Amino acid sequence: MNINELVRKNRTYRRFYQDYPLDRSILRELVDLARLSSTGGNLQSLKYFLSSEPEQNAQIFTTLGWAGYLKDWDGPEEGERPGGYIVVLFDQNIAKIPYWDHGIAAQSILLGAAEKGLGGCQFGNVRKDELRRVLGIAEHLEILLVIALGRPKEEVRLVSLAPDGSIKYYRDEAGIHYVPKRSLDDIIIG
């Protein structure tokens, strides 16, 4: 798979085959891609909490806000939830700010997941205090984002923006998830 195919395959998935096992070794492989990626000042201030156990996954699930544009959907039902999670943390004992590191790390993790036939979803909408408590995360580790991972159970299609310019993703009656994208000409200004 070339990079263009990989990027197109790397969509945000919100429904998974929950019974598909996501071994901790796979999560470690994905975090290793983040470890090898560039970081601001080469400070390497990110840490990662890995979860692939059903009980712990269930605890993490309850702290996440799913699909803000889908107002009548509270997230995947039992049986469609992620097989694992990576919580991306910033070690404030190493640096003062995380720079852009978590974006680069998340992209590396998700591209690696796509290459393995997996999919994921990044969450900034996290009840961080609750997540810190249930996972026992130390105070010097700031929760930056959570990445849910699993074998996708939905189809995601890229489409052009609607005539009204809306960028809001949506689903049709068959459950196909559509993601509007601006055209290349619309984003290149010079």
Give me a quick take on this structure.
This protein has 190 residues and is an alpha+beta fold. The chain has 6 helices and 7 strands; from the N terminus they run ααβαβαβαββββα.
The CATH class of the largest domain = Alpha Beta
**pLDDT < 50 stretches:** none
User: Please, how many domains?
Assistant: 2
Order of helices and strands: HHEHEHEHEEEEH
What is the second-level CATH architecture of the largest domain?
Answer: 3-Layer(aba) Sandwich
Shape descriptor reads: globular
Largest sheet, in brief, is:
4 strands, antiparallel
| Average pLDDT metric | 95
The CATH homologous superfamily of the largest domain is termed: NADH Oxidase
- Total number of helices: 6
Q: How would you classify the helix and strand content by structural class?
A: alpha+beta
Question: Assembly type of the shown chains?
Answer: single chain
Q: Give the CA-CA distance, first to last residue.
A: 31 Å
**Rg over C-alpha atoms, rounded to the nearest angstrom:** 17 Å
**CATH fold-level name of the largest domain:** NADH Oxidase
Helical fraction equals 25-40%
Strand order, main sheet: write it out.
Answer: 1-2-4-3
Strand content: 15-25%
Tell me the number of strands: 7
